[in-house]
Amino acid sequence: MLRNEEIKTSSDTSNMHQNFQIVNHGIPGTVLDDMLDGVLRFHEQDTEIKKEFYSRDVTKGVYYNTNFDLYVTPALKWRDTLSCVMAPHPLDPHKLPTVCRDITIEYCEYVKKVGTNLFELLSEALGLNYNYLKDIDCAEGLFLLSHYSPPCPQPELTFGASSHYDSSFITVLLQDQLGGLQVFHQNQWVDVTPVPGALVVNLGNMMQLITNDKFLSVKHRVLAHKIGPRVSVASFFRQHLPPENSRIYGPIRELLTPDNPPVYKETSVKDLVLHHNGKGLDGTSALGPFRL
Ligand SMILES: O=C(O)CCC(=O)C(=O)O
Ligand SMILES: [Fe+2]
What we know:
Layout: H1 4-7, E1 19-22, H2 29-43, H3 47-50, E2 62-66, E3 80-87, H4 101-125, H5 132-135, E4 142-149, E5 159-164, E6 170-175, E7 181-185, E8 188-191, E9 199-203, H6 205-210, E10 220-223, E11 230-237, E12 248-249, E13 267-268, H7 269-279
Helix pairs in contact: 2-4
């Protein structure tokens, strides 16, 4: 696991990295490889078998489709995705595709631990008790997206994922070695070059909202490739469209001062996700309507 100093401590969070890679995360390399293989196995099955999982109903625990924002996005992405709602309610394992069932469950158990550790470190980096972010349920929800981008004949015409911010508190991302992920940093797109065995961590919109812009969510995208396929697994720490009475989040009171008044309204994860999904991956932050 990364050490606290690597995230930056409470006295200096002004330049908090919005995106970083971690190597000592405790997940065995074989588990990472098996997870990527599992995703490949699922997507490379016969269409007839995958059809069983095809749906655009986001209230399902497991669903497979292409471009979740198909009907609103200005341009289509070169990517298919298997989406699995892994937590807070345990998913019935039988809902998961057989070809990647066991490894998905095993990988998620590890990722939950990584997420818990990260929320402890991020709490401390904010100058809060290490339990703070866990206690407000940031680590409760886990929404897993297993992406597959086939080789693309004209990669200059599309993206693996167009420019966007994640709606999560944090996203733990496992990518294969092909590359293509970029973050927008100091006014330019910068490659997040794959490091064998590493996980990428992105800060998402919900983190930016509760920290009142102390931690900013990272704008990122994935280029399409002539070669491939490219496989990646994004673990979103947030609840997935929870019920109406879900928890309300606003800027953390302990971080506010007369010089740092709240800049966001209180909102539920559900409202933010609905707005995010409703506008699609259009390059803008979903936080706009939630700003005061
Ligand atoms: O495939 C990747 O590397 C990134 C995926 C991503 O940004 C997402 O699922 O939000
Ligand atoms: Fe993303």
